[in-house]
Write a structure and sequence with these properties.
Length: about 230
């Protein structure tokens, strides 16, 4: 397990340096998109229409912000369950998407597409939506405002704490094994053992303080807390 200060855009060369279980502080421009926005992105691709942003080497955050409080850049913005986007993800990866941020496991087709297209799937801190919002330095609604919280936003983030779940080498932190080995092929004891080994790696993952009165956490700060990997 390594720790990375990662600046976007996310090139294939950068994804090659990342491995499942690695900790990342991500900085740069990312785009929010949930179910409804994914449907429209796919519709645009199929119709040959322009997309609201360039997919090449881009990172999509599976999130929709809550209303922005007065004086704030954005409202609370935590990850949604990534599996809801699985039906759309392989086509977006084929079109150039390089990274995704969410929570929960991905399906086999998505995992294979991640490996094929040299992409990365990150987990954000579940249950810390208000604290993740503190990583956002700028926010702009760029497409489909009629979708409300599911509209597409361009976010500029700084030191967003993430953990690599799926890497280009076929590793998946949920089972700690290459694609060719599935949990269904393991006994219950073997499954629990592999989960324990890989979840232990998350026990030292990057975390923000729960105290809103504390100053912003510096990029060097590492605290002990697990990422919410709820499916």
């Amino acid at each position: 397990m390594q720790k990375h200060l990662l600046t976007l855009p996310l090139s294939a060369e950068k994804t090659a340096a990342l491995h499942s279980g690695d900790q990342v502080l991500l900085s740069g421009v990312i785009y929010t998109a949930r179910d409804a926005a994914h449907q429209r992105l796919i519709a645009c691709l199929q119709a040959g229409e322009p997309l609201p942003f360039d997919l090449r080497d881009a990172v999509i955050y599976y999130a929709g912000p809550s209303p922005t409080p007065p004086g704030k850049i954005i409202g609370a913005i935590g990850p949604t369950t990534s599996g809801r986007m699985d039906a759309y993800t392989p086509q977006l990866l084929a079109a150039g998407l390089r990274g995704m941020i969410g929570k929960g496991r991905r399906g086999d087709e998505v995992r294979q597409a991640i490996q094929k297209h040299k992409a990365i799937y990150f987990a954000a801190l579940g249950g810390a939506a208000a604290l993740l919002a503190r990583c956002v330095r700028a926010a702009e609604l760029i497409a489909w405002p009629e979708l409300g919280a599911e509209a597409v936003y361009r976010l500029t983030v700084e030191d967003m704490p993430l953990v690599v779940i799926n890497d280009i080498y076929g590793q998946d932190i949920y089972n700690g094994l290459p694609l060719k080995t599935s949990l269904e092929q393991m006994s219950k004891d073997e499954e629990q053992e592999h989960r324990a080994v890989w979840l232990e790696k998350l026990n030292a993952s990057i975390v923000l303080s729960a105290n809103e009165e504390l100053p912003d956490v510096p990029r060097s700060a590492i605290m002990r807390e697990s990422v919410d990997l709820t499916d």
